[in-house]
Amino acid sequence: MKRILVTGALGMLGTEVVDALRANADVVGVDISDFDVTDAEATAAAIAEVGPDAVVNCAAYTNVDGAESAPDLALAVNGPGAGNVARGAARAGARVLHMSTDYVFDGTKNEPYLEDDRTAPLNVYGESKLAGEREVGESGAAHLIVRTSWLYGHAGKNFVETILALSETEETLRIVVDQAGAPTNARDLALIIKDLVRGDATGIVHATNSGSSTWFGFARAILEAAGRGNVNVLPVGSDAFPRPARRPANSLLDLRRLASLLGWEPRPWREALVEYVSER
Would you please indicate which residues are annotated as catalytic (active-site) residues? Predict the structure, then answer.
């Protein structure tokens, strides 16, 4: 049985990863109260103490808009912090699965992004995650960088919960229609990670639920799944909701490498969404 260390274990994805791995591995989950990934010595010592065969790094600064006003913190956690985890894993002889994001791209491509497409982040968060990818890549650890998008889950704030909360007080919702992506259930992503941990793939792989949507289409699907189809949803452009961090117009990630590694394809995002809503 492998021993697997999961950082960021109390986060939206980390909680699901710990649950998914427990049946077949000795899992140790840690979070910020255990050690700070920006502290290289503490990180290396903590990893050495666990002695893992693999490390799944879910630790991250994830406040996309907040990163614009706290760039140093976002970069420290997502850049050198990721490097500290990877270097600590390398010293322990452990393989690393490091979580990254669609926000490393600028969203100008007219089709799903391949793993080796040119990166060009539009915001500080994307820049910090790209820095983390580079740190992991230069760490000396055997590694697989897993990029995902539009994540939602039971442990934390997310778009699904926001829409459902708004629908309780608003008769009409105005939702952005000019950004595309693949809504991804954290539990589904955790099951993907479970299979990727078992393998020995390296480099970068894209992992989301299958299919595509806009935020507008996602919102309508959420309301339908919750039996709240009476709420009116109006499509608007991104300029109707100016935010500190620019978002890519296209966040779709190509899943062909993922399917070849897994031997199966992730289920459609609508199916995963219906299950999530039914479990609330």
Answer: 125
